[in-house]
Amino acid sequence: MPAIEVLQLEREYKGGLRAVDGIDLEVAPGEVYGFLGPNGAGKTTTVRMLVTLLRPTGGRALVAGHDVATEPHLVRKRIGVALQEAALDLLMTGRELMELQATLHGIPSRDVAQRSAELIERVGLSRAAERRVATYSGGMRRRLDLAMALIHAPEVLFLDEPTTGLDPVSRVALWAEVRRLRDEGTTVFLTTQYLEEADQLADRVGIINAGRIVAEGTPAALKAEVGRPHLDLTFTEDADLEHARAVLERFGDHRPAAEGCHLSIAIAGGATEIAPVVRALDDEGLIVASLELVQPTLDDVFVEKTGRHLEGAEQAAPAPVPEPAA
């Protein structure tokens, strides 16, 4: 039985706005499923329906074998949810929050302290357990929120952009935890704005755009489907980009490129086509300041399927800065 099964799921708002328009998807037990989409594509609405925070207006969704519309109480018992903005009581300590969460989930009182301590240690917060959450860094709060989502050993874990805003050290630590959860058999439904994160963690990826699933498969298969590498070119500031665009059309299809003096084309021949492109531009008096041949990535898949880059795809990772001692 699938851990998550979605059949023609819809969510329509007043005025006829259909945020989710009849999507189908299936996630196997123990799988990490990466869910990607541009802002306004229906990604958040889909997740809110799957975690029972929003009722579908059409179709059906089963999570851990239970219907999100007719059996939401049974779904909630079997899922863990760590949203992007963790709702943590800053005046409580990490240990107090964990033990409160354990109690709310009905864990026997004799097991509350031990279960809480085990998870606090697992996410690396043992030394901070008696500190108020207000003193925690962003990464520490994210790790605490993850531990709280795991307190009742859920079958399915929903992670909503879990590493957004974290420094690289914290991101790598959270990636390691996601991999460990998968190895232990937990199903993870991961939304992210970092394509590298989906590529690293997800067994399969689904891309939603305008309320519909437009691509689904393993990262490797999706990249192979796009197939062609692309050539990114940067021109001098005085270059006539429209003229350059016309020249480049002889060699390949244009792709969305960064703003400024940048153009990008998909080329079938890879490195063998670089010299002819540069010669043609040089013959037209167009000076290339720099160029790069880029092999297909998940960003290329995203552009191919949605016509734009994912919002976080071009964000540079912040420099590694150690967190305060936990």
The main pleated sheet reads as:
6 strands, mixed
Shape: elongated
Q: Helix/strand-derived class?
A: alpha/beta
Strand order of the largest sheet: 6-7-8-3-9-10
**String of helices and strands:** EEEHEEHEHHHEHEHEEHEHEEHEH
Termini Cα gap: 40 Å
Radius of gyration: 23 Å
Topology:
Elements: E1 4-12, E2 18-27, E3 32-36, H1 43-50, E4 58-63, E5 66-67, H2 72-78, E6 79-82, H3 94-104, H4 109-122, H5 138-149, E7 156-160, H6 168-183, E8 187-191, H7 195-201, E9 204-209, E10 212-217, H8 219-226, E11 230-235, H9 241-248, E12 253-254, E13 262-266, H10 274-283, E14 288-294, H11 298-306
Parallel strand pairs: 3-8, 3-9, 6-7, 7-8
Antiparallel strand pairs: 1-2, 1-4, 4-5, 9-10, 11-13, 11-14, 12-13
Considering the chains and any ligands shown, give keywords for the structure.
alpha/beta, 14 strands, four-stranded antiparallel sheet, 326 residues, 11 helices
Kindly describe this structure.
The chain is 34% helix and 24% strand. The chain contains eleven helices and 14 strands. Mean pLDDT is 89; it is low at 315-326.
